[in-house]
């Protein structure tokens, strides 16, 4: 009997964390490392979890396969391509290691929309930009990811030129995640301070 969704969670852990100044994976929010919070959200939900990039030695203790970056520091599209190639399911949910308030119900909602598309990507009005690291990707995106990288496009959103993307608007997202906390990243000390405040109220 299948447990959870027929989806691989791709947890991107290979960022440089330049603004925060330390490895974000093990930065604690209200006493719990951010990567533990992300794994707590996706572990019971997804058939498989792969951790992409980061400190393989430290991450290996978390009980999931770690896929080293083919080109360390080259960006999330390189990591996504590696994850799509390594996963055993036909679909992936990609998220960053710095999303401590990821809502599993939102992931389930995106999955309900996947038929007929190659990617299902949230889109928020505040920054008028897609959220590529809280999105679903089919394995069949792999050739497009490779083509984007071959032409020098390192941004993950460049992949969308060559695949069938469903953009999910903010109004729909707020029905599941009213404060859009699934998209709250921790990139700076101020972001971390705000995350601590939210966690103190919600944990």
CATH class (first level) name: Alpha Beta
- What's the number of structural domains? 1
If you average the pLDDT, what whole number results? 90
Q: How much helicity do the residues have?
A: 25-40%
Summing up helix and strand content along with how strands pair, one would put the structural category as: alpha/beta
CATH superfamily: Spore Coat Polysaccharide Biosynthesis Protein SpsA, Chain A
Question: What does it look like?
Answer:
The protein has seven helices and ten strands. With 203 residues, the chain is of the alpha/beta class. The chain has a single domain, classed as Spore Coat Polysaccharide Biosynthesis Protein SpsA, Chain A (Alpha-Beta Complex). Strands 1, 4, 5, 6, 7, 8, 9 and 10 form an eight-stranded mixed beta sheet that branches. Strands 2-3 form a two-stranded antiparallel ribbon. β2 and β3 form a beta hairpin. α3 packs antiparallel against α5. The two termini are 31 Å apart.
